[in-house]
Amino acid sequence: MQALAPNTLRRYREFHRTPPLLGFFSVEDYHTKFVPTNTASPFSTLVLPCGRWRTLDCRHVLYSIHDWGLRLGLLLWDPITGEQQSFRAPMSPDVFFSAAVLCIADNCNHLDCRGGPFLVVFVGTDNYGVSWVTEYSSVTGAWSALTNVDKVTSLSYFDRRPSLFTGDAVYFVLEHGKAILRYDIAQKNLAISY
User: Fold this and answer.
1) Among candidate residues 120, 161, 158, 113, the one with its CA nearest the CA of residue 138
2) CB-based contact 155:139 (threshold 8 Å)
């Protein structure tokens, strides 16, 4: 597959101003597939290994997809190049979780970033309401130690909503918007707001 020239996406955005919808994820019976909305979509075909996959996040041209099966895997997909990278998730099956994928390249404007270093922020809450976070760095190829925050509530869970990234913090929604978990990437700490 031939990669697009680095300035192709920039020119595409300049021409269309308001970006058109190039495609969407469809989930049927836990099987995720990417459906392009037109034949001019620059996105590659998403080929997933067997399993029950769900999209967790999309940011900086990378999609984070989780396998609900026994492998508990994460897969990052670059829809432009078709490149995929998979690795094991740091969780047990009884955890409520979410994830965010972030480009961490120096001096990147996040308009055409791909192929550079990235960070996956993985958050979870166990059956006892204790929330934790860990980071996967593409630079080290490893997960960080868990950072915990004390019990949130007896039945806390992460909503299946995208995270919000602003400044040095990533925000995740808990319990249908009843609480927000904030993870400061620079300070490596968690905070809960109700």
Assistant:
1) 120
2) no
Query: Between β-strands 142-143 and 131-137, what pairing exists: parallel, antiparallel or unpaired?
Result: antiparallel
Instruction: Write the pLDDT tens digit of every residue in 31-57.
Output: 677 788 877 777 777 777 776 777 777
CA atoms within 13 A on the CB side of 127: 3
Of 38, 112, 109, 46, nearest in space to 76 by CA = 46
The domain limits of the chain are 6-193
**Closest C-alpha to 157, from 133, 127, 182:** 127
48: CB partners within 8 A, 6+ apart: 32, 33, 65, 75
pTM of the model: 0.77
